[in-house]
Prior knowledge:
By secondary structure, the protein is mainly alpha-helical. It is built from five helices and four strands. A two-stranded antiparallel ribbon has the order 1-2. The chain starts with a strand and ends with a helix.
Amino acid sequence: MDERCALCGNRTAQMDLESVSFEGLEAKACPYCRKQLEQTLKNPAQNSDWLQSILQVDTKGVRTDEVTAALTRICYQNDIPRPQTDPAAPMVPVPAVNKVPTAQSEAEKTAALEARVTALEQKLHKMQRRILLSKILGAVIPILVVCILAIILVRSEYFQNILDYYDQLGELANRM
C-alpha cells in the first residue's frame, strides 16, 4: 500500500487506483473519491461539502497543482463557496480509505465484536431451545389429540355403534 490517491492523498492499494478524468485532466483516484467526484460532477450543489473538504485536506504533496486547480475550477463554476483556509475553522472530514487503524480503535472494535458475538450466541441458544420445544410439541400434540378422541369415542356409545355397524357389514359380506 505505497500508492496514494491523487485527490485525497490517502494510502490505497495499487489495484484500487483507477484513472479518472475531469476538467481535461487524468488522475489516479481511490474508489471513494471516484464515486464522490462523479456525483459532484452530476450534482455539484449536493456534494459541495465533499468538494470543499477535499480541497482542505493535506495530501502530503501527492496532489498536483493542476488537480487542485481543476477541483477549484469545479468549485467556482458551480458557485460553491471557497473552502475555509483558517485552521481553527471546523473542517468536514474526508473518510480515509484503507486508513491504518490505531491500537485503541482496534481494541474498541474487538470489544464491540465480542459483545455482538455474545449476543448472537445467546440468541442462537434461545432459538435452539424453541426449535427443540416445537419438535417435541409437534410429536406430542397429535398423539394427545388421538388419545382424547379415542377416550371420547369409548365413553360415548358411538364407539359401540361403530363396532355394531362393522359387524353387520361383515355378516352381509359372509352371506354373499
